[in-house]
């Protein structure tokens, strides 16, 4: 995957290559270093080639692998959701500190995308009542898959929160979280 150095630095190319080999071939970096002449199955080789071609088209590695890590947890991502950012982890840390010191435990995440915020909060503070809202059905589907994978009971709502008529139908919450990743 040395072709990636046309787009990325050598260090970043190496990291992306390691991620791809681990996810697609099940081979970690140390195994790859120990066995540089490792024989790959035809299917693995084909999948790695597809991965490389997508990366060379400037697709983010998280979308290519359909996985992003957030708060040390894996989350499914695709073109319907934004890739979680480190700044969002900081927001979740602040939210968790607030929730732990407050009486109210009813939380809503507006524009949930992959669901990484409400799922992480629910995993860390299981007694919270967490809801997540998004206007996009495809994004909600990804969030629901992530919640099921992480066994996090989240109420998902498909609604346009920016429509004034929807304000009262959503309910009352102790904490509202919203983070635009753009």
In spatial order, strands of the major sheet run 5-4-3-6
Helix/strand structural class: alpha/beta
Number of helices: 8
Mean pLDDT: 91
Series of H and E elements: HHHHEEHEHEHEHE
- Tally of DSSP β-strands: 6
Report Rg: 19 Å
Keywords:
182 residues; alpha/beta; 4-stranded parallel sheet; two-stranded antiparallel sheet; 6 strands; 46% helix
If you had to describe this structure to a student in words, what would you say it looks like?
This protein has helices spanning 10-25, 29-34, 42-56, 61-65, 86-101, 116-124, 137-149, 167-170; strands at 68-70, 73-75, 106-110, 129-134, 155-158, 175-178. With 182 residues, it is of the alpha/beta class. Strands 5-4-3-6 form a 4-stranded parallel beta sheet, covered by helices on one side. A two-stranded antiparallel sheet has the order 1-2. Helix 5 (86-101) crosses helix 6 (116-124).
